[in-house]
Amino acid sequence: MISLRGAASALFPTRVSAIAAAFTVVAIGAAGFLPLFGGPGYEHAVASGVVLPSTVAVATALEIARLPRNALARWSPSASLGRGVHHGVVFALLALATAFAHVVRVGACDLAGGTVHFVLTAGVGAVLAGLWGALAGEVARGATA
Questions:
Q1: Which of 46, 66, 94, 106 has its CA 20 to 30 A from that of 83?
Q2: Nearest to residue 123, comparing CAs of 96, 83, 86, 84?
Q3: What is the value of pTM for the model shown?
Q4: What pLDDT digit, counting tens, does each position of 59-68 carry?
């Protein structure tokens, strides 16, 4: 049986990623209280597009650049790219979950269309930002190794 702490440590293995995830939930959650931002749609995708890419890229780059020396021997650039995609998907799902929480609070006009819009804009942007952060982390790791 997997505990909540075990699941959280699998999704956010470092303190950097946990702090970035908390920031994402708080920032996107706070934006949901603004008029028109209460559920998935254009406005929520814009707010997420402002917050998610920079958060994902910085968290991924810091996590990869700060790998312990003993982990560097078994960590490859492809693993870094995988970590970047992982961060992008997980953080996008966190932002989408906050939008769904606001849907419960205020309702939604077009839940399916808004969700598709979010996935094709902020969701894709978050994954690409994760890849960019992986590249930056690899460059930083190479400079310090």
A1: 46
A2: 96
A3: 0.87
A4: 999 999 988 7
Cα–Cα distance for residue pair 126/50, rounded to 1 Å: 10
- Map tokens 């930083």 to a residue: 140
By the 8 A CB rule, do 4 and 81 touch? no
Report yes or no: 24 and 95 within 8 Å, Cβ to Cβ. yes
Query: Hey, where are the domains in the chain?
Result: 23-144
CA distance 3 to 9: 10
- Displacement of CA 65 from its chain's centroid (Å): 18
Both tokens of residue 129? 């930002």
Torsion angle in degrees (nearest 10) through CA of 24, 42, 98, 25: 10
